[in-house]
Amino acid sequence: SQQGEEDPQALSIQEGENATMNCSYKTSINNLQWYRQNSGRGLVHLILIRSNEREKHSGRLRVTLDTSKKSSSLLITASRAADTASYFCATLNTGTASKLTFGTGTRLQVTL
Amino acid sequence: EAGVTQSPTHLIKTRGQQVTLRCSPISGHTSVYWYQQALGLGLQFLLWYDEGEERNRGNFPPRFSGRQFPNYSSELNVNALELEDSALYLCASSLAWANTGELFFGEGSRLTVL
Questions:
Q1: pLDDT surpassing 80 at residue B97
Q2: From CA B33, how far away is CA A56, in angstroms rounded?
Q3: What are the φ and ψ backbone dihedral angles of B23, each rounded to 5 degrees?
Q4: Which residues of chain B approach chain A closer than 8 Å at the C-beta?
Q5: How far apart are CA A99 and CA A107, in angstroms?
Q6: pLDDT digits (tens, 9 = 90+) for A22-41
Q7: How far apart are CA A84 and CA B34, in angstroms?
Q8: Which of B45, B98, B108 sits opposite A101 (nearest CB)?
Q9: Is the peptide bond before A8 cis (omega within 30 degrees of 0)?
Q10: Which residue among A28, A34, B10, B89 is the one 20 to 30 A from B110 at the CA level?
Q11: Which of B105, B94, B102 is closest to B51 using CA atoms?
């Protein structure tokens, strides 16, 4: 079963614009992670935010976490064509012993 | 350092056949995870192995099985293949089970069942 639901399902922007993706989840978490998947390939870990953190930055990525609303957002600033990919949130849920549960993903298309 | 490697990368089978997928984790990683990703969908958790033991299993029928070897590599076996088993099968590895859960993925094995 899916834990997270990403919103929007698909997003199309132009190069240089910012892209924001949202993730909602249902249960208590230890941490939330964002992954990127190029078409038909493996996933690559982008950033991890712990349940006691509210915001985290890594390069052009900014992640926020609101545990009261059970939601997270991923902001990619100054998007590039190379950012075109699917982005998934994944939660490490309390008591699930290291099993990550993935959301449904957001397909991001960045055009020139 | 070599990443997670999976084989084969692509394969085609017919209904009722059996398939074995293989995964080698990153050196030093003891946990191996298997996920199924049907076309256009998210990842569904299949199996988690750590130190040679099955630690957790997703909501899949028993014809999905696997094992982990002493060198921490892993196999995923699917018996009596069905059309809906067509998917990208992703293997991931991580350090010991008590870590943050950050996973390192292979490129996947794309299975097509005709």
A1: no
A2: 27
A3: -145, 135
A4: 4, 31, 33, 35, 41-43, 45, 48, 50, 55-56, 59, 88, 90, 92, 94, 97-108, 110
A5: 24
A6: 999 998 998 999 999 998 88
A7: 25
A8: B45
A9: yes
A10: A34
A11: B94
